[in-house]
Every structure is written in C-alpha cells, then in structure tokens.
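Troubleshooting: if your tokenizer reports a length mismatch, compare your output against this known-good record of 124 residues.
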Amino acid sequence: QVHLVESGGGLVQAGDSLRLSCTGPGRTFEHYATGWFRQAPGKEREFVAAISWSGVSTYYEQSLKGRFTTSRDNAKNTVWLQMNSLKPEDTAVYYCAATYKELPRNRANDYPYWGQGTQVTVSS
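Known-good structure output:
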C-alpha cells in the first residue's frame, strides 16, 4: 500500500498562485510515477499533470500547460504542483496519485494509489 498525503490547498483570488504538495512513503515513493487529478462539483475527475519517477519527464493536460508545473524531489519523498494565474474554473479538489506503470498515463484507472485530496477554491 502506498499512502499519499496532499497539502497546500486553500482559498485564493483569481490570478493568485498556489503550490500543492504530495508526500509519499519513504524509500519506495521514488519508484512510482505520480499524477495530479482534480474533481469539481458535479464533474468527473480529470487529469491535470504527471511526472515520471525520476522527474525527467512531465505531462500536462493541454489546456493547463504553461500555468501548472509539476516537479519532485525524491530525497524529500515529495511531488509538487505549482499553479499560477489561477482562475475560478480551477476550483476543485486536487488529488495526487501514484502508479508503477510507465507514463504517459492520463486515466485515473491507471493509478492504483490515491491521496485524500486537498480543496482549492479560486474566487473571482
């Protein structure tokens, strides 16, 4: 079992930035690719970004590319999602998820391990 914990969500205004963190288990987390997903009320969970276990490769939902950046530091067992120029439509619960499968993977079903989510609310 891979236990993931997200943090960093909150209430911000449009145009602000937030950085989400996802912390995984020590020593083993570096073997997993990590994805970010979000789910807004009444909508399906959607892919945001993913990063390979080494951090060399990253993938983004096309519409978010340029505003969102994911990175990781395996020495700290942490993956981040930097979100800039936030918009009200970015409001959602954000989840990190881990997979042992090779990227790119943008389907939630490809990620067997999930965190509890962190709420991001962007006011206009």
